Amino acid sequence: MNFRDYSTPQEAEMELAPMIDVVFLLLIFFIVTWNSAQQERNVDVSVPAAEEGADKDRQVGEIIVNVDKEGIIVVNGVRVTEDDLLGRLHDIAEAYPDQAVILRGDSNASFQHIINILDVCKKANIWNIAFATTKPEEASKPKKSGKSP
Questions:
Q1: What is the enclosing helix (H) or strand (E) of 37?
Q2: How confident is the model over 105-116, as pLDDT tens digits?
Q3: Is residue 69 a contact partner of residue 108, using CB atoms and an 8 Å limit?
Q4: 4 exposure class (CB count in 10 Å sphere: 0-12, 13-18, 19+)
Q5: What is the pLDDT of residues 85-97, one digit of tens each?
Q6: Binning pLDDT at 50, 70 and 90, where does residue 71 land?
Q7: Residue-level pLDDT at 27
Q8: CA–CA separation, 74 vs 78, rounded Å?
Q9: Which residues, listed in sequence order, are joined to residue 134 by a DSSP beta bridge?
Q10: 73-75 and 63-67 as β-strands: parallel, antiparallel, unpaired?
Q11: Contact 61, 70 (CB under 8 A)
């Protein structure tokens, strides 16, 4: 007598619950990332255009300092004074000596406002400073002279 059941094995069904969990986690991740990226940039700041600007790889933990045309300083969506900025940068520079700072100065801002921020960075012992620029639009580029087709 043979009591074993040799019936065909049941096919595995696809579980939807783990897949839905993963989709929701990805959705939350992208929303949080997008939100923090929007806080870095101040839409009131129009950075100057530069033809030779390079797209540099972003560093982890870099600080973005926005300076508008009136000289108002905004860091992480919060308006700060030069003294507050000095305190923050000094504390960060002590913890992270190679801290990167990206300076987003408005193209209509006074040059003195930008120099003041550079002085604050120097006092805080931060040397890794980059200036944010945009590429000029194709319509505003002068046409190159050459043979026409």
A1: helix 16-40
A2: 888 888 888 899
A3: yes
A4: exposed
A5: 999 999 988 988 8
A6: confident
A7: 93
A8: 5
A9: 49
A10: antiparallel
A11: no
In the block, residue with structure tokens 């897949």: 19
How far apart (Å, rounded) are the C-alpha atoms in residues 148 and 10? 71
Packing angle between helix 111-123 and helix 82-95, nearest 10 degrees?
40
Which of helix, strand or coil describes residue 100?
strand
Please name the amino acid found at residue 18. P
Residue 141, Ramachandran bin (φ over 0: left; ψ between -120 and 50: alpha; else beta): beta
CA distance 131 to 117: 12
Per DSSP, the residues of 42-99 read -TT--PPB-TT---PPPPTT-EEEEE-TT--EEETTEEE-HHHHHHHHHHHHHH-TT-
pTM: 0.58
Contact 111, 138 (CB under 8 A): no
Q: Which CATH number applies to 39-136?
A: 3.30.420.270
Tokens at residue 116, please? 């003041």
C-alpha 63/C-alpha 96 separation (Å) is 12
